[in-house]
Design goal:
single chain; mainly beta; flat
């Protein structure tokens, strides 16, 4: 992880944070040199912070638990790899979902994520781009995230147009907090290695981009190669975020 060192400014009106009525609790800072991608893990006081989402997850690491808070929708005529149309939920004014991301439950019991590229209130439609190979169940679920207007409790943050918005954990002034941001995707990647022992490391705050699949691991052994005699013992592994409940220790490609 790296420390987020840019100074924070407290919001003084709803205009500072897209109309969010919690503005007095929210601060913002330029993201250059710190948070550059909303998916990056953010840690304060050894707590894993949740990014803003259109519901409150029971645990921030389970933002992709489709059975907890995600919006149900009939797929036919409403969901494709390029748009979601929902006249019940997508009723907000122009610009409301700018800078946001959408997660969609897809065939194969997985979730896929994409940036929202347009929002059309007149047709209750958001547009995005998932791979054309993706398919959906007859009824599916979706969730919108990284919206500064969805910051509703302490610890939440959003990254919009290179500016980070944050309701400080515990309240108070975030300039007096140490805010740490994940900076790498993997700790150890081994391919065709034998008799390696990794011991006594502290691995935390690694992350994967939402498009990357199983991309954040303390240890990844590359499948399709021979990795023998690998030992990963007596290490502290915490605050990891990967795609769709991806593994923190990925032991493909090993025989013992």
């Amino acid at each position: 992880t790296v420390d987020f060192t840019n100074s924070w400014t407290q919001c003084t009106s709803t205009n500072d944070v897209g109309g969010n009525t919690n503005f007095a609790n929210i601060w913002y800072a330029n993201a250059n040199g710190g948070q550059t991608y909303f998916w990056q893990t953010v840690i304060v006081s050894n707590q894993f912070l949740p990014f803003a989402q259109d519901f409150v997850p029971t645990e921030p690491i389970w933002f992709d638990d489709v059975h907890n808070g995600w919006t149900n929708i009939t797929t036919s005529g409403n969901v494709t790899t390029n748009f979601i149309k929902d006249s019940t939920y997508l009723t907000q004014p122009t610009g409301y979902w700018d800078g946001c991301w959408v997660g969609v439950f897809v065939d194969g019991n997985g979730t896929r994520f994409a940036a929202v590229t347009n929002y059309f209130p007149a047709t209750n439609t958001i547009r995005f781009a998932l791979p054309p190979s993706v398919s959906f169940y007859g009824t599916t679920k979706y969730s919108l995230m990284n919206n500064m207007r969805s910051i509703t409790y302490e610890g939440q943050y959003a990254l919009v147009t290179n500016r980070m918005y944050y309701w400080p954990l515990g309240g108070g002034n975030p300039n007096n907090q140490t805010v740490r941001v994940a900076s790498l995707g993997n700790a150890f990647v081994l391919s065709n290695e034998q008799h390696v022992r990794m011991q006594g490391f502290q691995v935390e705050g690694y992350y994967s981009h939402v498009e990357a699949g199983y991309g954040a691991s303390a240890v990844t052994l590359t499948s399709g190669t021979r990795n023998d005699g690998i030992r990963f013992t007596d290490n502290l592994v915490q605050f990891m975020r990967s795609m769709d409940r991806g593994p923190v220790i990925n032991l493909q490609g090993t025989t013992n």
